[in-house]
Amino acid sequence: MRVSVVTITLLFATALTAGINTNADSPKEAALALAKRARKAKKSGHNAQAYLLYSEALAIQPENSGYRAQMVLLQTRAAAESKPLPPSAEGAQDTPHVDIPPEDLYESLTEKEVAEARQLNDVPHLNASREKRDFDLSGAPRVLFDRVAQAFGLETIYDGDYPQAGAAVRFRLSGVDYREAIHALEAATGSFVIPLSSKLFMVAQDTPSKRNDLERTMAISVPVPQSLTTQEITELAQALRQTTNVEKISWNTSAGTIVIRDRVSRVIPAIAVLDQLISYRPEVMIDLEFLQVGESDVESYGFNVSNSFSATYLGHILNNVITAPGSVTNLLSFGGGKTLVALTAAQVQAMFNETISTSKSLYHAQIRSVVGQPATFHAGEKYPVITGGYFGNVPANSGTVFAPPPAFTYEDLGIKLKVTPYVHGMNDSALDIETSFEVLTGSAINGIPVIGTRSLKSLVGVKNGEWALIGTVTGKTQSKSVAGFWGLAQIPVLGQLFRQTTTDEEDSNVLIGIRTRLLSMPPDQIVTKRLFVGSDARPLTPL
Question: What phi and psi, each to the nearest 5 degrees, are found at residue 146?
Fold first, then answer.
């Protein structure tokens, strides 16, 4: 029966070659036309005819692995269906050459089919029975693959260079599914499997050249969180190359995605590793509270003595009428007659005033960040500071002089806090804190105000959910002023009767409290996936 099938192949191939005008059409077009006829024959149930058509298409395009796979798939069915034919007479006349009709070469596509063709297809995966089975087999690799595939409802085809026979292999397993059974058989026979559809897979020898030629290549883009920096993405790419041997990795900065392209056995593990690297960064909510307490005590006490006096003449000149100013009271007179003079008496007023004030202000803020990502908080205002301008006098006879506008920048006044969180489990966290407090000192140099700065940088450990005091800003002001009658106010002891004393004491305190709360689980609380990738020489192909 095997000899007759070969005879049919040669005769029918000769007839098909004679029936196609290869000069009029390119080899690719001729192969496509034959493949289309083979598909129609297969759908009609003529497996032998489909086998021969695929063999002729493969003869025109030997590098097409799809035609070879279809031939191997139809080989058994064609042998059972075909009948032996008598040998053809030599010198038989060739059939006339005919052109391939356009309808046989090109198929009409609908708009839906065109839209579906533009979309990328997923890599084929096997969809076999989920039941676990036991195996106790012995035989050549082809026999073992066929029997294991039949046990799970699958079909097999083999690469053209895969050996027809080989050393017998003892294959014994119990309680395994189809993935475990196929992977174990790959290791036992030195082969690797390429899924072609949900029920069909190809078996080839596991060599570097065969993997490069037959294993499918896929390209995929993985979105990257915006919180990752350029340095972190570069480190991720290096980690993927070192762990999965992926060769082509690129970063699309505009779309924020990482693009990976390589063989399926490398890309699938790379995606799983990348997903774990970028997903398990816990988020932290940082609560900040600024408590400002201010106290002020102002006291004024002493004797208020008038330090100005007026003199009024009250003497008689030419029998004039003596009149005293209406606004003057408490006069002291001296002399008599024409020498009568009155002086206003000093007025003394005892005084005591005290003003006590207390203020408390509480500012609450929340910052949300991820581990290793700094978060900044600023409470205050932005003050414009001139950094450049035109200064100097312009001569009067110089005409119009262009004065460029001044250049200035905005400085942050107030409290500025920069926090970088790090999580150490469910209970503890570490915070890298940089705090600065900037105020105007009231002085200026060349018109540029002087800004006073106080800064603090520390690394603290806190308990999650508990408040911690990380810093304080304190200030204390004391002032005293004395006013009174010149000369008399400086007399010891008695000078208290001729002066007023004012004291002012101000205290201000700012307390900075912080609390961390976890919004997502830290990495040590998440069970990572186990990845079976095989060895560098024999990676596992996803099924």
Answer: -65, -40
78 close to 9: Cβ distance less than 8 angstroms: no
Where in 371-467 does DSSP place strands (E)?
375-388, 407-424, 428-445, 448-463
Structure tokens at 241: 């190359």
Residue type for position 458: S
CA neighbor of 73 nearest in space, from 157, 186, 191: 157
Q: Which of 49-58, 252-261, 349-358, 491-500 has the highest mean pLDDT?
A: 49-58
Name the amino acid, one letter, at 457. K
CA–CA gap between residue 45 and residue 57 (Å, rounded) = 19
pTM, entire model = 0.49
* 119-127 CB contacts, 8 Å cutoff, 24+ apart: 123/195, 123/216, 123/218, 123/264, 123/542, 124/195, 124/196, 124/197, 124/198, 124/216, 125/195, 125/198, 125/542, 125/543, 126/154, 126/178, 126/179, 126/195, 126/198, 126/199, 126/201, 126/543, 127/198, 127/199
- C-alpha 368 chain-centroid distance: 14
**For residues 367 and 289, is the Cβ–Cβ distance under 8 A?**
no
The tokens of 228 are what?
A: 């990752």
φ, ψ for residue 61, nearest 5 deg = -125, 85
Tokens of 82: 């075909």
